[in-house]
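With this grant's support, we have settled on a layout for protein records. One resulting record is reproduced below.
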Amino acid sequence: MNQKYGAIILAAIMVLSVFSYFVASFVGNSNDVEDTSTDVQDAPGFEVIGGTHFSAEMNSLSDGLAFTPEGMTNAIYVDYSRTYGTPLQDYNVTDLYMYYNTMMITRYSAYNITGSYGFEADKLNPEVVGFNYTIADSYNGYSLLFRGNGIYNIIGTPTLLGDVGTLEKVIDVASGTSPASDEFNEIMGYVTPGAEYQVLISTDTLADQHYLEYRNMNDGNYSKTEIFLNPLDSTVDTVSKLEANCTARNLVYNTSTYDDGNILKVVVTANTTNFINLVTEQYY
């Protein structure tokens, strides 16, 4: 049943991830890099990679934004370690080994919708180097590991993945020599920390900016929170109509507006039995 729920979540939010961008970049790259992959049990630790290792807090979307360069339009954070075995699981566990041949436990992705740049920050367990790479260059003391087709890693906690230009910008932001993204500061001010799934969108048709999260309430209930910056009148109307008859779908609504209607925050809760209703509640 979890996989059925997961497929619906995938349809709703994974299109916002850079997952397909990076996976496509890895396809057929085995001839481009040195064959250094190995089984995770035998893989060396991060210490085999010289230079500075990236280090930053990454337990939420807010943490990821703190080292994200300006100009990103969409971002997503997933804590796989907390979604496993729950209705929020939207993946096969083997997929979490795809990039690194070791488990990806949390993941942050940010990108520009034009496709001009994007990156991921991934926390791994265990932190080992079990993948194909070539040490191509370094930037401000960080080793750039070439993965093929224009994609690089910078080892650390989290490990960075992306094109070299974007990764250099991330290093600059983390070192304090370049400003972090502040495009989402206003909407993020209304986010309550702690959700397993967090998504930011500045390119959809419901509002100027749109925040979406899914959260395990740890009491048999799940919640979905959506926050809209400058929502369209049609978005507000749709929320009101769905809220008016939400009990028929066994959903509980808590809707608030702030800043003279500039911010619309909608929290919808359902128990596990009605989780499917929660996921399919859409305001388009």
Remarks:
- Residues 2-13 form the longest helix (12 residues).
- The CA atoms of residues 100 and 131 lie 5 Å apart.
- Residues 1-8, 10-31 have pLDDT under 50 and may be disordered.
- Residues 2-175 form one domain.
